[in-house]
Amino acid sequence: MRYIKRLPEPDILVQKRDEWQKKFEEKKAKNATARPDSSKYGNPSIRERLEMCSHRKCFYCESLLKGEPKEIDHFIEVAIAPELAYTWTNLYLSCSNCNDKVSHDVIPVDEVLDPCKSSDEEIRANITFEDECICSQPGSEKGLKTIQKFHLNTDLLDLKRGKWLRKIMETAIEIQRCMIADKREKPTQEEKHKLLRYMQPDQPYSMMAEIFLRKKFQRFFT
């Protein structure tokens, strides 16, 4: 997870939000368990705008969703706040793993990190990584609940992050080999940029990459 700057609301949502919300409320008045129409909040232009916000990554786990199932999650669940069913700031792009989150009754969203509100500094203060394994910072209840709510510590995510981490390690080791061969103590700017690239928000698991590289290869960046 890392901070995501939300782009302007899509035109279709500006134009249709009130109409869609009214129809949903009418349906809900007849059936308390009614759900909002996913074909509406999942409109292609809305989905595309969400993908642009996160560089086509899951808002929660940072998994790249190119070629993967993409779901639109209501950050504050519809069961809790039906009035936010078509509200732009409540729509988040999610992988199926993170969208299958722990319910509000068990872990409320006001007790976890919010990628659209929590800064990178706040996220790092509550969540860290030991290699590919995500963990809460010592004493951070918010970090622990965030991991639990969005299932950020599944075996599948460990596998995906581990695969990406091996790619990062291969790059770092190759740079070290070149430094030894050239009898250099520091990487070139081009070599440094190769590593910095992994930390950019358009890359998968960029927060993990930043924490790992700063911890293991700090001398490359000083």
Jot down its keywords.
about 5% strand, about 220 residues, two-stranded antiparallel ribbon, 4 strands, mainly alpha, two-stranded antiparallel sheet, elongated
Structure overview:
The chain is mainly alpha-helical and 222 residues long. It has a domain at 155-221. The protein has 9 helices and 4 strands, in the order αααββααββαααα. The protein is elongated and about 75 Å long.
Break the fold down into its secondary structure elements and pairings.
Blueprint: H1 11-30, H2 38-41, H3 44-54, E1 71-74, E2 91-94, H4 96-99, H5 120-126, E3 127-130, E4 133-136, H6 141-149, H7 155-181, H8 189-197, H9 206-216
Antiparallel strand pairs: 1-2, 3-4
Mean pLDDT: 95
Helix and strand composition category: mainly alpha
Q: Which residue ranges are poorly predicted, with pLDDT under 50 across at least 5 consecutive positions?
A: none
Main pleated sheet: 2 strands, antiparallel
Distance between the termini: 26 Å
Number of strands: 4
Offer a quick outline of the entry.
By secondary structure, this protein is mainly alpha-helical. It is 46% helix and 7% strand.
